[in-house]
Amino acid sequence: MSQLKENLRNFYNQTADLRNSSKKQEWKIEERRIFLELAKSEGKQTMLEIGAGAGCDSLFFMENGLTVTAIDLSAAMVVKCKEKAIDAHELDFYQVTALNKKFQCIWSMNSLLHVPKAELPQVLANINLVLDKDGLFYMGVYGGADSEHEYTMEISEYPRFFAFYTPAALQKVLEKHFQVLAFKQYDVGNNDTFQSILMRKL
Q1: How far apart are CA 160 and CA 12, in angstroms?
Q2: What does the buried/exposed string (b/e) look like for 139-178 if buried means 16 or more CB atoms within 10 Å of the residue's CB?
Q3: Contact by Cβ (8 Å): 116, 163
């Protein structure tokens, strides 16, 4: 395992309780609601959440009628998911094909920003492999400027790696693997810029 990945695993293992009890921002709730409405309108029934964390989004989608599978790099986060009766697995972005399943929709909120830019094309190709024909893929990430490096926060000694993109650069990468249906970028406070991308399998 790379040091970048090991640091991520350790950070999220260490902060699982904190994240499980934290309040979700309103803009994330709205993004989730919009995606659920679209998925339901198209009759989607199965979902994979990539980077599920403590499982709050997976639980929401389950409670609204979808059959959800969740994956996360952190064993502690997977435990939090299983406590919510979520079908959760300790896998990272690179291992989605190990599930040996296909899904009608895929949800990833602020997780794929931990993938180094050189590795994102392969991760996206693997995601495409487990998405059903005409399947929906939602990717939400912080971004706006071009950079990639590790950050350390006061709550943990372990740094986390982040890759940020300009809208044009991110869209160019995504369009090689998916049909981009909508790309939104907006300010979510605390000087953060969020990129919301809705895609369909080509």
Answers
A1: 9
A2: bbbbbbeeeeeeeeeeebebbbbbbbbeeeebeeebeebb
A3: yes
Q: What pLDDT score does 1 carry?
A: 61
Q: What is the pLDDT of residues 168-193, one digit of tens each?
A: 999 999 999 999 999 999 999 888 99
pTM score:
0.96
Q: Hey, what are 41's tokens? A: 């309108």
CATH of 3-201, one of 3.40.50.1860, 3.90.550.10, 3.30.565.10, 3.40.50.150: 3.40.50.150
Q: What φ, ψ does residue 150 adopt, rounded to 5°?
A: -90, 145
Asked if residues 127 and 50 have their Cβ atoms less than 8 Å apart, the reply is yes
129 C-beta neighbours (distance < 10 Å), count: 11
Show the CA angle centred on residue 176, arms to residues 2 and 131, nearest 5°. Answer: 75
Q: Are strands 193-201 and 131-142 parallel, antiparallel or unpaired?
A: antiparallel
User: Which class for 188: exposed (0-12), middle (13-18), buried (19 or more C-beta within 10 A)?
Assistant: middle
Spatial distance between the Cα atoms of 115 and 98, rounded to a whole number of angstroms: 18
Residue 54, phi then psi, degrees to nearest 5: -80, 0
pLDDT over 80 at 116, yes or no: yes
The residue among 22, 202, 31 whose CA lies nearest residue 124 is: 202
Closest among 120, 121, 102 to 112, alpha carbons compared: 120
Instruction: Dig out the tokens for 32 from the structure.
Output: 């989730």
